[in-house]
Amino acid sequence: MLSRVAESIYWMSRYIERAENVARFVDVNLQLILDQPTGMQAQWDPLVATTGDDEVFEERYGEATREAVLKFLSFDTENPNSIISCLRAARENARSIRENISSEMWEQLNDAYLMVTETSEEWAMAEPHQFFTDIKVASHLFMGQTDNIMSHSEGWHFCQLGRLIERADKTSRIVDVKYFILLPSVSDVNTPFDDIQWGALLHSASAFEMYRKTHGLIAPNKVVAFLLLDREFPRSVLYCISKAEESLHAISGTPLETFSNSAEQGLGQLRSEFAYAQVDQILHSGLHEFLDAFQTKLNDVGADIYKTFFALRPVNGESTQSQSQKQ
Amino acid sequence: MTRFDGYKTDGFYDEMFFEDGSARPAVQMLVERISNFENGEFIRRQITAEHALLRMGITFNVYADEQGVERIFPFDLIPRIIDANEWEWIERGLKQRIHALNLFIDDVYHDQKIIKDGVVPADVVLSSDRYLEQCIGLNPPHGIWCHITGTDLVRDGDGQIYVLEDNLGCPSGVSYVMENRQLMKRTFPQLFGMSQIQPVEDYPSRLLDMLQYLVSDRVISPVVALLTPGIYNSAYFEHSFLAQQMGVSLVEGRDLVVMEGYVHMRTTKGFERVDVIYRRINDDFLDPEVFKPESLLGVPGLMDVYKSGRLALINAPGTCVADDKVICSYVPEIIKYYLDEDIIVPNVPTYMCWEDDDRKYVLENLDKLVVKEANQSGGYGMLIGPHATRAEHAEFAKRIKENPRNYIAQPTLALSRVPVLIEDHFEGRHVDLRPFILYGEDIYVLPGGLTRVALKKGSLVVNSSQGGGSKDTWVLSGSV
């Protein structure tokens, strides 16, 4: 497969996953605010923090009001991580590799993009739940088509790789930001509100029902364990990086537990770290530090994937210049 | 009462109706069927079809516009129908033409017999911008230069069909032929059941066959790639469509590299050799070491590999010389010279501004003629005399006098018309026809081709970049 094509497939997939994640956690926050005790300040800035774009936001909008945050995360074309920007980037990538994905996949993605561009901002602000549901459904349809129509060969594995790395990153950020906000409110511990807050964190990753089945009552350490270390829940970090590792090895043909490039090495180390981690130890030595380190390592894996598969290889001593898309 | 009541041919040749308003034999079933639609049904289907085009992302980019702006290529549901007899004649004419043009191109890059024998003046060939000295003496596989041609045909007021021009460079539009057909099948399934319409769906297989045939004598399973300038090119949709349908790699210049005497693609697993390149970039941009040094679209060293015979390029570099509008006007002589046959489908009569008598006539009759630059296409760089202002006439007169070799003129043809849905009724609009011809083991003409229609009332310019749309083209099999 052409390096350029592989890179576009990878980013197409990452951007769709990113759009879906933004839709998911904004939607959950909207629901959460409905349940807040009256008189309590609505929490909008954590949403922006989750995307990692808080500085840009503050510069452009100042105060984190409902309107400003919804606009910034949904329709702001200058924010590269807004839903509309993600879908545009996904579509541009798909457009450059149309011959490699099926017509159905292309039409689905094109539909999703057209839907967002044709949606009026007023309507989306008034009916945000419907709007975000539409985005999630569009992303699921695309993923479903990818899994059911595309051959599970190299291209599909690059798709998986992009999707899973993006998802692992976003899940870790959601946990990081929420935990930081929830932890200090010791007075709320074991109140109904506390339960709702932790429930919302699970909802952000669509993990609530699966968590209930596994652990029953909500307990902060179990919630963290479920989202980071569960082996079966498809949005947990461990699950994502394990599957990403499988795809990486399927691409290179190197057996698991060995490595032939730095991406495999880095991802393998990261997976082992999670596979043998224990939640109480993580919480004891600092969840934020742990997640921060994880995100840095995951970024390194992204850079290694670029170096290994996408970057132009030098030929006959020619100098090559190339640039990766933004992480 | 039919849906076409009130439809007027306005004195033009109409592809569907006689002057008295009765339907031509080949289209009677279609007219009947459309007339049986309930009120609003046809319009509803037209809207559905347009929506489908947008969904499928069947769009093109407009150069003069902001980069990356996509528009759908307007599509009109009424098909243009050609009966079997007329098509048989067109097909014969096109095969003859391509056969002769290929011999001509090969000759001008080798012995130049046609020049030595005084049939085509040396000046005309050698002064053409499109005659590439770098191609002299080259021998493309099987001696084929023009593998893919999209010849434009028009019908004049008296019903005569003429060749307007051959597009031997990178003719585009064939993807619309296939997409239009698919859309029509979805829209009017019953009609397809009732009519005998020659299929167009096998074009990608035939194209792939031809591409592989070119190297079949030296490579067992050749690797084919389609070279595109990238997603901002106006025909990008077509490039990706054809690559997808043929299952070959769509590459950009930056994906290719010349190494150890072969062209390679840069893949995730290292370098992979390429044997055949269907290139959709112009000659000038192919190889910065041989042609335009500033080209970023091409591949340095590509021409060396081509010359060594380790790569097939489609169409062969240099082919475009026959696209020069002055050279094109010599096609009747070219056919006579190489095949000893009379031309079957005639050229549009052409005045050559570099000849004194012709130039005098052109300058005196600018208001009646269409003037074209010898090396432009896409509806750019032309003057439609009867529709132009006096200032435009003066401007072209000046340009012709300054550079007569670069201009030709043709009478303004009363292009034939077909009905087009305009709001809630049908009006006649001018059309042309671009059949596609493949030259591999033998010469194949895709039945029909792209019917382009000038959607602006009275306009004669059918190019998509200038407000044109398209229609499905039905070639009927058997007699009506």
Tag the structure with descriptive keywords.
heterodimer; A: 327 residues; mainly alpha; 2 domains; 16 helices; B: 480 residues; alpha+beta; Dna Ligase, domain 1; four-stranded parallel sheet; 23 strands
Please describe what this structure looks like.
The complex is a heterodimer of chains A (327) and B (480). Chain A has 16 helices and no strands. Chain A has 2 domains: 1-150, no CATH class; 151-312, no CATH class. Chain A is mainly alpha-helical. In chain A, 72% of the residues lie in helices and 0% in strands. Chain B has a domain at 351-411: Dna Ligase, domain 1. Helix content of chain B is 29%, strand content 22%. The longest helix of chain B is centred in the N-terminal third of the chain and has 25 residues, at 84-108. Chain B has 14 helices and 23 strands. Chain B has 480 residues and is of the alpha+beta class. In chain B, strands 3-23-22-19-18 form a 5-stranded mixed beta sheet. Chain B has a 4-stranded parallel beta sheet with strand order 8-7-12-13, with helices on one face. At the A-B interface, helix 1 and helix 6 of A face helix 2, helix 9, strand 8 and strand 10 of B.
Topology at a glance:
The complex is a heterodimer of chains A (327) and B (480).
Chain A: H1 3-34, H2 45-51, H3 54-61, H4 66-74, H5 83-95, H6 103-118, H7 121-126, H8 128-149, H9 154-182, H10 192-204, H11 208-215, H12 220-229, H13 237-252, H14 262-275, H15 279-285, H16 287-310
Helix pairs in contact in A: 1-5, 1-8, 1-9, 1-10, 2-9, 5-6, 6-8, 9-10, 9-13, 9-16, 13-14, 14-16
Chain B: H1 28-35, H2 41-56, E1 59-61, E2 70-72, E3 75-82, H3 84-108, H4 113-116, H5 122-126, E4 148-150, E5 152-155, E6 161-165, H6 174-187, H7 189-194, H8 203-213, E7 224-227, H9 236-246, E8 249-251, E9 256-259, E10 262-267, E11 270-274, E12 276-279, H10 302-307, E13 312-314, H11 325-328, H12 331-339, E14 351-352, H13 356-364, E15 369-373, E16 382-384, H14 390-402, E17 407-411, E18 417-422, E19 425-434, E20 436-439, E21 443-445, E22 450-454, E23 468-475
Helix pairs in contact in B: 3-12
